[in-house]
Write a structure and sequence with these properties.
By secondary structure, the chain is of the alpha+beta class. The chain has two helices and six strands, in the order H-E-E-H-E-E-E-E. A hairpin with a 6-residue loop joins strand 3 and strand 4. The radius of gyration is 17 Å and the shape is globular. The model has no long low-confidence stretch (mean pLDDT 86).
């Protein structure tokens, strides 16, 4: 099962050249860019670990691409994403978010059903990866 998260999630994985083009677009809009990673890609887990600080006032994507490469090399078995933020409305909001790396094996999610009072049913999604401890959820991660 391929994890779908962020912009371009239903397209084939982006090449480094395509990633550079998207980062250049974000920078042309004046959006600060950050690189983040996680080994728990639950859809509601929006706060991933940051790789360095957000990059402000860049004109060229080279600095961001270097940070992406460092993060990939350090965490080869984790999900890595790029986030671009737009603060033009007086608050920080995500303008662009996309994956730049995913683990070779993605175990997927389990749908858990719980029965409550009056025959109500509640559903929850839990990643199979969380059966293992943090930091050991994916090979090489």
């Amino acid at each position: 099962m391929k994890f779908r998260h962020g912009t371009f999630s239903y397209l084939p994985d982006l090449t480094d050249e395509e990633i550079g083009a998207q980062v250049a677009y974000a920078l042309s809009k004046g959006w600060p860019v950050s690189v983040e990673h996680t080994d728990d890609p639950h859809p509601r887990n929006v706060y991933w670990e940051m790789w360095g600080l957000p990059m402000f006032d860049l004109a060229e994507p080279d600095g961001v691409l270097a940070q992406i490469d460092e993060c990939r090399a350090t965490h080869p078995g984790r999900y890595v994403r790029v986030q671009a933020y737009d603060a033009s409305l007086g608050r920080q909001s995500t303008a662009l978010s996309f994956l730049v790396q995913r683990p070779a094996q993605e175990p997927g999610f389990v749908l858990e059903r719980q029965e409550g009072s009056d025959r109500t049913q509640r559903y929850a999604v839990r990643p199979y990866a969380t059966n293992r401890p943090a930091g050991a959820r994916y090979e090489g991660g």
